[in-house]
């Protein structure tokens, strides 16, 4: 195994978790060949230095703390090479109260004052862009008028 490639991958993983896909992309940018990349990632996974499941949990925790909903987080994880089944499993294991998170974000952005139609539309777009399902926040918008 190429020691320089392994050293590079381990150096990345010491800073933060990466998905296997992200790690492969970083290594491709350094012109490391595909076979070496696969060997290095497999070695890192055997040593438990890289785990897509651990990355997924960590990423979900990070994004929920920032106030993002399940649709947005799932989309971002897909872009990072995490398949939908693993994402769904991690969401289930973490048992996040999406309604409470949506309410927290709604109240932070839109105070409890009554919302006019234009502000209701703005609130709807904001909550949807944060990645929440309509049923997570629709009642909040309808309560506010």
Cα Rg: 20 Å
What is the number of E strands? 0
End-to-end Cα distance: 64 Å
Mean pLDDT: 93
Shape: elongated
Class from helix and strand fractions:
mainly alpha
The H/E string reads HHHHHHHHH
**Unreliable sequence segments:** none
As an assembly, this protein is single chain
Q: Main β-sheet: number of strands, strand sense, barrel status?
A: none
How many helix segments? Answer: 9
Helix content: over 70%
- The fraction of residues assigned to DSSP E strands is under 5%
Outline the structure in words:
- The protein has 145 residues and is mainly alpha-helical.
- Helix content is 73%, strand content 0%.
- It has nine helices and no strands.
- The longest helix is centred in the middle third of the chain and has 14 residues, at 52-65.
- The N and C termini lie far apart (64 Å).
- The relative contact order is 0.11.
SSE blueprint:
Layout lengths: L2 H13 L4 H10 L4 H13 L5 H14 L4 H10 L4 H11 L3 H12 L7 H13 L4 H10 L2
Helix pairs in contact: 1-3, 2-3, 4-6, 5-6, 7-9, 8-9
List key phrases describing it:
145 residues, mainly alpha, 0% strand, elongated
Briefly characterize the structure.
By secondary structure, this protein is mainly alpha-helical. The protein is built from 9 helices and no strands.
């Amino acid at each position: 195994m190429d020691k320089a490639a392994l050293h590079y991958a381990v150096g990345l993983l010491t800073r933060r978790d990466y998905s296997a896909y992200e790690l492969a992309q970083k290594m491709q940018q350094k012109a490391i060949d595909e076979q070496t990349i696969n060997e290095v990632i497999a070695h890192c996974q055997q040593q438990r230095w890289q785990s897509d499941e651990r990355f997924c949990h960590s990423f979900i925790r990070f994004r929920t703390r920032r106030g993002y909903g399940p649709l947005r987080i799932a989309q971002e994880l897909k872009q990072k090479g995490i398949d939908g089944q693993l994402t769904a499993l991690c969401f289930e294991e973490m048992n996040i109260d999406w309604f409470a998170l949506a309410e927290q974000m709604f109240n932070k952005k839109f105070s409890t004052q009554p919302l006019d139609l234009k502000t209701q539309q703005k609130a709807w777009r904001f909550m949807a862009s944060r990645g929440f399902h309509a049923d997570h926040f629709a009642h909040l918008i309808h309560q506010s008028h």
